[in-house]
Write a structure and sequence with these properties.
single chain, elongated, eight-stranded antiparallel sheet
């Protein structure tokens, strides 16, 4: 079968002013590709802003602490696991799982009176597909057994309900009374 070459603008694109079935398929593919791009860009944007938004939620003046060697470390880091080790990475390198994005949240909790890091928590976060109306996006972490719906307002996701649940989950895991 011979290969078909496409020109950017074909003068005989329509039969009687109507789009051919082939042209309709091409348009559908273009629309699908654009829709997919917008979808993933929306989820990637949430990841890109996640650390800063969580830092603000926690009331941190700075997202930096000093480690035991006197080097600055991020208190909140977003990344992925590579061979079982946490690493920060560009937001577009996070794993896709169906229509979900997965990323890891590393929370370094330095002691108040020491420069030594006392606790580091690494949680897998699953950022789920928005609902069919585009009003809600669901998030959950691996320790949580439920999804937390977060409302989409003016194209931005209000992560406060997820941050509330995450804070409660972390607090319960750090509860010294349960030791």
């Amino acid at each position: 079968m011979p290969l078909v070459k496409f020109k950017a603008h074909q003068s005989r694109c329509c039969l009687g002013g109507k789009m051919t079935k082939f042209q309709k398929l091409r348009e559908d593919v273009s629309n699908r590709v654009e829709s997919e791009r917008k979808y993933w860009d929306f989820l990637y944007n949430i990841i890109q802003e996640f650390g800063g938004n969580f830092s603000q939620y926690l009331g941190l003046e700075s997202n930096q602490a000093i480690d035991e060697n006197g080097n600055p470390i991020g208190i909140i880091k977003v990344g992925r696991l590579n061979d079982g080790q946490f690493e920060q990475c560009a937001y577009w390198l996070h794993d896709k799982d169906g229509k979900n994005l997965t990323f890891y949240l590393c929370l370094n909790l330095p002691g108040e009176d020491t420069m030594q890091r006392e606790v580091a928590l690494i949680d897998k976060v699953i950022l789920g597909k928005p609902d069919i109306f585009g009003n809600i996006v669901n998030l959950r972490t691996s320790p949580m057994l439920y999804e937390v719906p977060c409302e989409i307002k003016d194209g931005k996701v209000d992560l406060t309900p997820f941050f509330d649940a995450l804070y409660q989950d972390i607090s319960s895991r750090l509860d010294i009374h349960s030791l």
